[in-house]
């Protein structure tokens, strides 16, 4: 993609990665992604905000060349992760006079990860500023969006906030700005769930920190740019602050049909009681969809057969993920089946230690479900509904 003008003397110069399907060798990218970098030409100095993934360094360099950029004075590194910083070494080769601007923590990471010389990095304090002549950059330290060194850069005169990972979406598009809010909302929510949710409470503090800034445009380093910033700010307020909703997330797997029969019955009862259920068969689910469902859910119920005295390995993965993502769920339980014994309940609950949940009585049965087992599932559904009502989560 060629460079694109955002405002007078402010350009998008990044790269769109339409075909990438996995991030960090972990996160599925059904819609690809982009690495947004921005060029700001002040009357005296020129700054580049972030770079791109090292696999696409040539696209960034070509874009700068098309804009006839002869000198870059500063490269602002909002984040040290390589999808934004990885092209720094090449940029510093092409523009040897450029100084890298970063938080003190980011400086250390850039030296460790990319072997950039200390003398090339200028650390900046929280709320520090840098004049480009007729344009001013203000740096806002915003740790843990997504690593401990992250910061945001505010371009005062144009009221633009460059947020790197924060507010981003893995969404490759030829549109520079958000055009279809519903589609971008889904992509941004998936991104929040997979990358930002573990830092929910810190993000609340960062949202507080920027609440008095006048912002016309939010320009993240992944996905479309927001010329209606309230759209994404409101979404983040909802995902981070709002109480969970009357939703049960039910990741499960079944080997011979017993757990599946329990899941089918249990989901039917919950729905009858007015509880929304999001059910995921872990034999083939998109793990990103499960993460998204956890953003709003009040309860997680994990369904598993017993394999070698413990849960099925796919369930172990899902439980580990849910624990790592630290969603705002309040209640948890386990349903499933065994043949001759096991320690599935202890093993799954032991994996959910990060979640501040009340564990509701599990229903783990021997063999295929019988009448008493369905009554136990009825009781678990009642327990869930009552807890949701007690917490005012039911309309
Ligand atoms: Fe887009 Fe944390 O890197």
Question: What would your notes on this structure say?
Answer:
This protein is elongated. With 395 residues, the protein is α/β, with parallel strands linked by helices. The longest helix is centred in the C-terminal third of the chain and has 20 residues. Strand 10, helix 4 and strand 11 form a beta-alpha-beta unit. It has a seven-stranded mixed β-sheet with strand order 1-2-7-8-9-10-11. It is 34% helix and 25% strand. It binds MU-OXO-diiron (FEO). MU-OXO-diiron binds next to helix 2.
Keywords:
single chain, 395 residues, alpha/beta, 7-stranded mixed β-sheet, 12 helices, 34% helix, elongated, binds MU-OXO-diiron
- Compute the number of helices: 12
What order do the strands of the largest sheet run in, or round the barrel if closed? Answer: 1-2-7-8-9-10-11
Mean of all residue-level pLDDT scores: 96
Ligand types: MU-OXO-diiron
Low-confidence stretches: none
By helix and strand content, what is the structural category?
alpha/beta
Fraction of residues in H or I helices: 25-40%
Largest sheet: 7 strands, mixed
First-to-last CA distance:
47 Å
**Cα-atom Rg, whole angstroms?**
24 Å
